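Journal club side-thread
Mid-discussion, someone asked how the predicted structure for our own chain would compare to the paper's figures. Pasting it here so we can look after the session.
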Amino acid sequence: MTLIFDNRYDALGERFYASLYPDPLPNPRAVIFNDDALETLGLKQYGLDDLLSFFSGNSVPEGAAPLAMVYAGHQFGGYSPQLGDGRGILIGQIRNKKGTLIDLHLKGAGKTPFSRMGDGRAVLRSCIREFLASEALHHLGIPSTRALAVTTSNEPVQRETIENASMLMRFSESHIRFGSFEYFAYTEQFDELRQLCDYTLENHFPQIVQNETKYDDFLCAVAEKTGSLIAQWQAFGFAHGVMNTDNMSIIGQTFDYGPYGFMEKFDPYYICNHSDDRGRYAFNRQPLIGHWNCQALAQALSSLTTSVAAKNMLQTYQDTFIKRYHALMCRKLGLMETIEGDKDLYEDLLDLMEGYGIDYTIFFRSLSQYHQNDDVGKITIIKSCADDFAPWFKRYNERLALESLDDNDRHEVMKKINPKYILRNYLAQLAIQNSENGDHSDLHRLYTVLKNPYDEQPEFESYARETPPWGQHLQISCSS
């Protein structure tokens, strides 16, 4: 396998990472490959054997510069002074067909100097969950790291039970985190902190790299990307689960998938991580935690920025989040022309949905087929409580009357923002169980569905149904 590498992160020097090669999986087996991404990255030309060897750590192409990145981070509010890639290795950086610099990162690649007490391995369930979630968000239009492949083996690793060691090859424009800057700030390596900032600006924020106030502007640019991302999480009902600063991407992508969950029955207090016993990262706290994390980043960069930089950053985050979330929620209701009172309209709707435990995704998709002044009971998800929703629909009909789009045009717009298919935890769990037994067909079908979340896909109608009772209380933790 021949790849052309452009290893810019490696050029930063040894204070930023530890150089090492992956610990290969023995007797690797392919689980799932992302064919579309292989094509985009110029990897489609290689045969299955070459790709399997690469994605399982058994071969490292010439020109790669494999390394484990060092970083720190606030975890559940407490500062951890050194974290780093404890089970992942940045294999190298290449250019995609558009010329964009891309990290190839192998997760589950074995012990590194940052593994602490871990074995450096990932297991099949965690690799599948990240593969599915990262691709699901990407195809919903939400910024995310992406997945190239999952491979597995018969190497045993101990978690709650004995599981098979597996690897995930993921890719992104950057794997730099908020915690990367915290590490250099709190260890008082200020030259390296400036070096990391300059690297990030040059490669990911070139539009501001020449500004006299580039470090202040950098904070605001990160705040804007982060605020927009979390607004999308809230509008689509996605809960990340572990919003530690070491899990926050500096370029505003969803990053480091663990105990995530998509909202099913609407519950603003939804906690997807059963290890989060205090609800720090509950769904309705995500916007606040995004603000908190921005504040932590501003503190880390205070030696490079002006006295007003943190204030401007936090205001930018708040303004961006509010504006983006409002626009998305109005669009989900089919409102193209925002007017006073729209916020009350969708907030009152969410209160109703919470009170009756209405499935978030199914309701909004059904609303995308609602004609003005229809019988409310035609929306089957609320049929049993239609009388209680009727006053809200009266207001909604009055609001729709002020719109210029007719029903059919509005429906087309709404179907492009209200998905029919999301990654429900029970669907992921079924795919994982079958894959652990050697049958990957359900995983491949689910992946096919998630690549087209806004399409009807009548052959996969069952994937759009409400979660069955047995799947409504699945507990997911940080364990991998």
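Post-session note: The mean pLDDT is 96.
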